[in-house]
From TrEMBL:
Keyword Glycoprotein set for record: no
Localisation: Cell membrane
Gene3D superfamilies: Rhodopsin 7-helix transmembrane proteins
UniProt protein name: Olfactory receptor
Keywords linked to the UniProt accession: Cell membrane, G-protein coupled receptor, Membrane, Olfaction, Receptor, Sensory transduction, Transducer, Transmembrane, Transmembrane helix
Protein family membership: Belongs to the G-protein coupled receptor 1 family.
Pfam families, sorted: 7tm_4
Species of origin: Microcaecilia unicolor
PANTHER family in alphabetical order: OLFACTORY RECEPTOR
One MF annotation (Gene Ontology) recorded for this entry: olfactory receptor activity
InterPro entries: GPCR_Rhodpsn, GPCR_Rhodpsn_7TM, Olfact_rcpt, Olfactory_GPCR
Membrane topology value: Multi-pass membrane protein
GO CC list: plasma membrane
Length: 313
């Protein structure tokens, strides 16, 4: 076990496992919460898996837009599966402990998938910009090489960001309380448990979050500025409706994603509320991945038809 520096007056045994407190200690709520989150998890898995299968088997969905959508759905499956199964065990069996290494790995994959999703949403915004503003050159600009490279860059950038953050976290010592007042090994409540100075880790986190989300959001905002400008120049109301319908699903998804991420990671640690963090984490780890396939399928005829084909098989 690790101990504090020899210069300290007393040695304090380092934490080797954490206790995830979850949403509530009320025993009467554990079964209802288990059923609710189990239902959400199953809907998330089935919905996103259906999107992935549909984009693979339906030739009409072999386009850059649906290529990115399949990666987004796969990311949602991975991110949710990294968190919800442990949460279900907490609700049903009351087993709240998680090893130090297990906690670190859960945090690493969560950060990796979350950053990857941020980059994928940015790539999708650029794809919509090309589709609306340069429709005649769309297939030339968004050729297979380009959209495959964008997807690969999204995954690479996402996990490189996660590695950068995790290096600063691993350097911290945890030698006092081991109770994480959250639904999983999330970064902000974990930093609050450290018995060493977290200033450098918080700085790395803020810089990494800013370098990830701020440029991504600026690219997205710029893309939609040009998209809206192009749509307003369309004379017919039907033409405007069709042009906007190609972007509305993506716009809805990114609005929910960025709102929750900005509220959690791009504000001073002193203003961070654990209770608010729990609520927001439920949104971006369970609710948003469940809603993403519903938003895209309900607003898109091609996806609807492809999903019917999958269900029919």
């Amino acid at each position: 076990m690790r101990t504090k520096d020899p210069g300290d007056v007393e040695n304090i045994t380092a934490v080797t496992e954490f206790i995830i407190l979850g949403l509530s200690d009320n025993p009467d709520l554990q079964v209802p919460l288990f059923l609710i989150f189990l239902l959400i998890y199953l809907i998330t898995l089935l919905g996103n898996l259906a999107i992935v299968i549909a984009t693979c088997i339906d030739p009409r969905l072999h386009t850059p837009m649906y290529f990115f959508l399949s990666h987004l759905s796969f990311t949602d499956i991975c991110c949710t599966s990294n968190i919800v199964p442990k949460l279900l065990v907490i609700f049903l069996a009351g087993e709240k402990t998680i090893s130090y290494s297990g906690c670190i790995m859960q945090l690493f994959f969560f950060m990796g998938f979350a950053c990857t999703e941020c980059f994928l949403l940015t790539a999708m915004a650029y794809d919509r910009y090309v589709a609306v503003c340069h429709p005649l050159h769309y297939l030339l600009i968004m050729n297979q090489k380009v959209y495959v490279l964008l997807a690969a860059a999204s995954w690479t950038g996402g996990f490189l960001t996660s590695v950068t953050i995790m290096v600063s976290v691993i350097c911290l010592s945890f030698c006092a309380s081991n109770e994480i007042n959250h639904i999983f090994c999330e970064l902000m409540p974990l930093l609050k448990l450290s018995c060493t100075d977290t200033a450098s880790a918080e700085t790395v986190l803020f810089i990494a979050a800013a370098l990830t989300s701020v440029p991504a959001s600026l690219v997205t905002l710029t893309s939609y500025t040009f998209i809206i400008s192009a749509i307003l120049r369309i004379r017919s109301a039907e033409g405007k409706r069709k042009a906007f319908s190609t972007c509305s699903s993506h716009l809805t998804v990114i609005s929910v994603f960025y709102l929750s991420i900005f509220c959690v990671y791009l504000r001073p640690n002193s203003t961070y509320s654990l209770q608010q963090g729990k609520i927001l984490s439920v949104v971006y780890t369970t609710v948003t991945p469940m809603l993403n396939p519903l938003i895209y399928s309900l607003r898109n005829k091609d996806v609807k038809n492809a999903l019917r084909k999958v269900i029919g098989r």
